[in-house]
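[audit] Reproducing an earlier prediction to check determinism. Same input, same settings, fresh worker. If the tokens differ from the archived copy the diff job will pick it up downstream; this log only records the rerun itself.
[audit] input (154 residues):
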Amino acid sequence: MSDLKELYQEVIIDHSRKPRNFKTLGAGSRRAEGFNPLCGDKVMVYADVVEGRIVDLSFQGSGCAISTASASLMTDALKGKSLDQARVIFDQFHRLVTGAQSEPSEEASRDNLLGKLSALGGVREFPMRVKCATLAWHTLRNALGNDPSVAVTE
């Protein structure tokens, strides 16, 4: 196994065992619920947005290692970002894990948009796991858009 794959596996294991930002936020936060009916992963995403910037971001829920690691990495990566930056990172991440793009774009690499999120790029080889990796992201999209519907992976 290559050193890079081993490093990526370590990042995923670390974030799944010790998720960052695993908490609720205050009553004024935006929130949304997500559910993956195929495997039962559930997530609640909380976002405090001030003047178009994500000042705090967290999640709670239960799910597989990929789902938990993705939510943890997402909260780390997007905290402090503008809503526009978050959309660009979402698009880059989604293209990476769905296989629409095998590697981050030159612009994303130059700007280091994905950072540790690149560790989840390997899920594109396992289509059923893509839903696990993207659940928190779709849920965040609902939270930021004040969409009250439950985000699903179908």
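[audit] rerun output stored. Observation attached for the diff report: The longest strand covers residues 53-62.
[audit] end
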